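[Solved] Which block belongs to which protein?

Original post:
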Amino acid sequence: MVSVDAKKKELIGDFKNAGREWHPQGQPVKVRSKDFVDQHLGKGIPYGVYDITANNGWVSVGIDHDTAQFASESLRRWWQQMGSRVYPKAKELLVTADAGGSNGYRIRLWKVALQELADAIGLRISVCHFPPGPSKWNKIEHRMFCHITENWRGQPLVSRAVIVNLIGNTKTRTGLTINAELDENAYPTGIKVSDAELAAVRIKRAKFYGDWNYTILPRG
C-alpha cells in the first residue's frame, strides 16, 4: 500500500528559501531579490511515492510537466527500484491518491497510464481517491513531504542535483528513508484520450463510489 502525490513545484536557482540555517557570522548566503523563473534551470517537480508499511519513500524530480504519465512513471520507478525488492510475491498494489491533480479520478490519461503500468509490472493496481476535503490526510503529506520541507528549509535550491540530494538525504528518528532520482523525460500536456482508448482499460469499479475506488487489471 502506497500513498502518492506531487509536492509543490520549486524554483531552481539562487532564490530565497524560507527557514533558517546556521552560517558563520557575517557570511550569509546571497540570493536574488526577485523570484522570477530562471529560463535555463526552470522548476523542479517532486512526485512522491510513500510506502506506508515500510516507512520509506521514492521521489522522482521532474523538470517538464506534472502529468498523469509522469505520476505513473514515478510509480513504475518506485516499484522497480524499491517495491519489488520488498514485496517480491505481491500480486496487487493499493494506491491512495488525492481526487485532483495529475492523478485525479477524472483524468482519463491517469487510467490509461495505470493500465500500461499494470501490464508492465503484472500487478493489479487498486486506487482509492480521497475526497477533496480530507485529501490533506493522505499519509504522504504528513509522513514524508513535511520532513523533506524541513530538511531543505533555509537552503537555496541552486541546482537539480541539490534538490535530489536534499530529498535523498532526508531521514527521521522513526526510520523514514527516501530515495530520489531526477526524471529528465518530457511529459507533454494536452494529450487527449479517446473513448476507444478508455474503453480498452480493464477497470473494475467498486460498489462503493466506483468513480473514486477502482482496480486496473493487467491485460494478458
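(Second protein starts here: sequence line, then its C-alpha cells.)
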Amino acid sequence: MTFDRPLLEGILVRRYKRFLADVELADGGVITAHTPNTGTMLGCCEPGSRVWLSESTNPKRKYRHGWELVEAEPGVLVGINTGRANGLVEEAISGGVLAELQDYPGLRREVKYGSENSRIDLLLHGGERPECYVEVKNVTLADDGIAFFPDAVSTRGSKHLRELAGVRRAGRRAVIVFCVQREDVSEFRPADDIDTAYGAALRQAAAEGVETLAYRARVSERGVHLETALPVVLP
C-alpha cells in the first residue's frame, strides 16, 4: 500500500477523545487530525513523538488530516491506522506474499456470518477448497522484539475468535491474521497481561483448528507493505 500523496510530518502534542490528535507542524501551527485507531495505542502516542499525517480531498470530512505513522522508537515507524490493515492483507494475498492464503479465485469483504451477528473481514472462495474466513487484526504494540495484541481489553476480539471457532466446527477454513505494522519485532504473542480472556480465547480457537498467522510490514513515509511471516507463540 503506497500513500496516494506525500505525508505531512509533525510533532504530536496530544491524543485525546480517542479519535483526535493535536499535531504541531514545522511552521509552528497546530492542527487537529483524526486518529483512526480504537485502541490505547500503548507506546505509540507519546507527546513529542514524530508523526505523519495523510490529507483527504473529501470536502465533507470534519478533519482533513488523518494520523498514519508514528516514530515509536528512534528509527522505528509504526502504522497506527487500523483501517489500513484489511487492505494490507488483501494486497499481500493478491501479491503472493501471504503464502498460506493463495489459490482462491474469489474474495468478498465484510460478509455477515456467525451466531453473534459478526462480519468477517475477508471471505475467500472458489475452486474446490472450502470457504476461508479471514479475520484481520492490526498490531502496533511491541516490547523487546515481540509484537503483542491487543493493547486494551477487547471483548469484541474475543467474540471474533468464538465466531471463527464456530466456522471451523462447521467444516470451513478459519484464519486470523495479525497485521504487524512495525519492523522491530521477530515474533507475535497474545498480550495476556492486558487481556487474559483474549489470550485464552486465542489458544482455544487455535486448539479447535483456527489458523493463526502474523505478518510484519515494512513501514516508511512512502507506504506500508506486508513482507515477512512471524512465528505465533502461544505459551
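Accepted answer:
You had them paired correctly. Confirming on the second one: Residues 8-79 form a domain with the OB fold (Dihydrolipoamide Acetyltransferase, E2P) fold (CATH 2.40.50.580).
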